[in-house]
Amino acid sequence: MKRLLLLLVVVGLGVTAFSGHAAASSLVYLDKSGDIAAAKSDGSAARKLVSNGFTKGPIAVDGKGRIAYFHSAGSGSPFHELIDQEGKHLAGPFLFNDMGLCGYVSPFRVAASPDGTWLAATYIHGNNCSSASFTVTTRLIAADGPTLSDSVYGATTSLTQPRFMPQNQPRLSGIIGGQINVWQGPEQPTMTPWIQLNVPDLEIDSFDYDPARNRIIVEVSPSGNPEGGEERAILVLDYDTPITGSLTQVCVMDDLVASSTNGAQPRYSPDGKMIAWNAPAGIFVSPAPTAAGDTCAITPKLAVPGGSDVEWAPFTLSGSGGNPPTGGRIQITKVTGLSRTAFRKGSSVKVKVPAAGAVKVKATVSQATAGKLKLVKRPRGPVVVASGSAKAARAGTVTVKLRPTAKVKAAWKKLAGARVTLKAAQGSRSATRTVKLTR
């Protein structure tokens, strides 16, 4: 690959240097089964966090250690949820309802602001059904709430690979037209060009910030998308002040990944001392790149065979791994009675629990569905349509019978096609699952 040359685009935006860092670090990723998992930085103590049967991903982790992920049931609407390092449910599911006209691709990339306030989700927004017109869009949404298309958070078309800068939160950046751009802030949501390559046959695929200093790692590859994959290289830069300040090339490495159809997506650990990236064999880790002349020196290790979509988290996992993780978790394993008639009589939910105790299950429909079914005159959010409880004598599986509300019983003929979100809880532990009612 050709030696990389850079062009710094100067427009005018000041950012102060960042100091301080977190020492704790673990890997969060999708395992071979497509489930969300976590492991220590060397790949040990691996354990599943979410294995509910949904199509899961992408993943983001905020500075508090909360893990955000999107999921959908088949071709259904996408939702996002928040969990902790043991897989315990913290918030959600929140519907992502800005797919547009005939939009069909759930968010495929997400970033969390370090302060835990924002998620930046990249997705395919449908513009026109008849002409199959679509736009790649990145929308800012509240981490602890649903997507509001008319919210002040705003959206940016053609922006990919969203990443929040460690400084002056929240400050979004991403790739537009082959350049790394920086967002000036919520009150001035304008992307300003910052870094671009000055080599026409190379392109920027991804980037990430070192949280401990003003340093950025940039993934580059030959232009185009060859079917058999391509080489993935990295470029490490130090910056003074984004946009207006100096930019210094630290080192270059031509073969981070020899060939892959998917991006390596290199990520800095919370203390900036390590990096992790994706490759066909799985997730690799290494001490952060250092300069050996002009070349980046690293010592790669395959930490998670078969893993993908890796992100770092600012916590240290305990124990030696295995499932269930330390502290236990609950899981909705089976739901029966999903026809509209059966739901009216009372569906059954099987819940796997790690200990004895009361188990409660609550079923809700979205605000839009509640309005369509006329369950509430003016719904202001999800509406409960059924609930039930049971007592587990020991760890194992317990069956909870749902009792539908009177309004739902009256509207049973309209239930076909409705999506119902089930939330099972035992103490502070909880699990969710979304199902679709049939005729």
Tell me, what's the shape? Answer: globular
Count up the domains. Answer: 2
- How do the strands line up in the largest sheet? 1-16-15-14-13
Quaternary status of these chains?
single chain
Determine the strand fraction and express it as a percent band.
over 45%
**For the residues shown, what is the average pLDDT?**
84
Q: Regarding CATH, which class of the largest domain?
A: Mainly Beta
**How far do the termini sit from each other?**
58 Å
Fraction of residues in helix: under 10%
Question: Which key phrases capture this entry?
Answer:
Neuraminidase; globular; mainly beta; 439 residues; 2 domains; single chain; 4% helix
Descriptive overview:
With 439 residues, the chain is mainly beta. It folds into two domains: 292 residues, 6 Propeller (Neuraminidase), CATH 2.120.10; 106 residues, Immunoglobulin-like (Sandwich), CATH 2.60.40. It is 4% helix and 50% strand. It is built from three helices and 35 strands. A five-stranded antiparallel beta sheet has the order 1-16-15-14-13, with no helix packed on it. The protein has a five-stranded antiparallel beta sheet with strand order 33-31-30-34-35. It has a four-stranded antiparallel beta sheet with strand order 4-3-2-27, with no helix packed on it. A hairpin with a 5-residue loop joins β9 and β10. The longest helix is centred in the last third of the chain and has 7 residues. The chain is globular and about 70 Å long. It starts with 5 loop residues before the first strand and ends with a strand. About 5% of the residues have low confidence.
